[in-house]
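User: I'm writing a tutorial on reading structure tokens. Could you give me a worked example: one chain, its sequence, then its tokens, then a sentence or two explaining what the tokens reveal?
Assistant: Sure. Here is the example chain.
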Amino acid sequence: MRLLEIGVFAVRGVTANKLRSTLTTLGILIGVASVILLLAVGNGASTAVQESIAGLGTNILTISPQRGNPQSASSAKPLTVADATALADATEAPDVKSASPVSSVAATASFEGTSYSVPQFVGTDPAYFETTNSAVANGNLFTADDVLQARKVVVIGATVATSLFPSTDPVGNTVLVNNIPFTVIGVLATKGSSGLQDSDDLAVSPLTTVQNALTGYGGLTQVVVQATSADSLPAAQAQATTILNGRHRIGAGQTADYRMLSQEQLLTARTATTDTFTVLLASVAAISLLVGGIGITNIMLVTVTERIREIGIRKAVGAPKSTILGQFLIEATMLSLFGGALGVAAGVIGSQFTIAGIKPVIVPSSVLLAFAVSALIGLFFGSYPASRAASLRPIEALRHE
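And here are its predicted structure tokens:
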């Protein structure tokens, strides 16, 4: 029997029970759509992280206290404003353009009965805005005099502005931060969200104000350093290390009580985290494909059982074993390919929507891979029922009731 005739028989077999065939393809559809969509979400998160970090600039160093430092608590020194001032010394660190102290804390802000939890209420100096490429979209930034006078003024991010002032201009209004009044003097331009971290979900006030009202005068959370250019970043990092080692009395071979990360290192760390997250999501989705394949095996076994007499008659009139095997393999493959095609469509359509704050980005290779795997699933999971049908003896098949 020619291949075309075998295909015609397979099509008739699949369409003989449309409802059952449709339900069988659902498992493959869900699996393929899940793989495409979840990989797109993972890729979208990775892209957003890269854009978010790139938005800060390629010449930024972030210095933070070392967690879990093996040194004793008495010998480890916190980061201080004096450290930031020393790092900004043009004589000692000619490749450092600026260094801003950062003291941040989570706080609750409220305005006219609306409360919002701000994950980062940052206390710093005016240079922080230039260092972190934070431009003002509405109003003004605070000044050095505001820091000197410890004025209770605040510049809020776009997310905070939208949450507290959905229909009102925030500038000029007073918000209560942990029940302490702060005057909003500006709103920062939008930087965007990575889904996992919202760069616009923060508020920035003078360092002295935040230390007086919220955090106290302990160590800093961070020191943000800007090199004079991206090319001078390694030199700036070396100069900053020398200055901090000297101030913290860290000798050769000793573990530093601070951690210094460049944007490139930060990007590498976050990309690795996102890649792990993506692999985990894809693995979960692959389980759906496996379940769909088992469903095909189950339905094909039922189909073979229902058509045993038909198989016996065809074998009795001379149909070879390869014809029966090919027909049922084609039927199983058709079911998985149909489900795979619908799954590709569902995955592509679903990726057009924002999911949990992440804009999915389709990975073309994932579409091809998911569709190819769906075809292989049809061949693999359909092989046992097809082999069972092909191995039936004609006389036993014709006796089957």
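What the tokens reveal: The chain has a mean pLDDT of 83. The radius of gyration is 32 Å.
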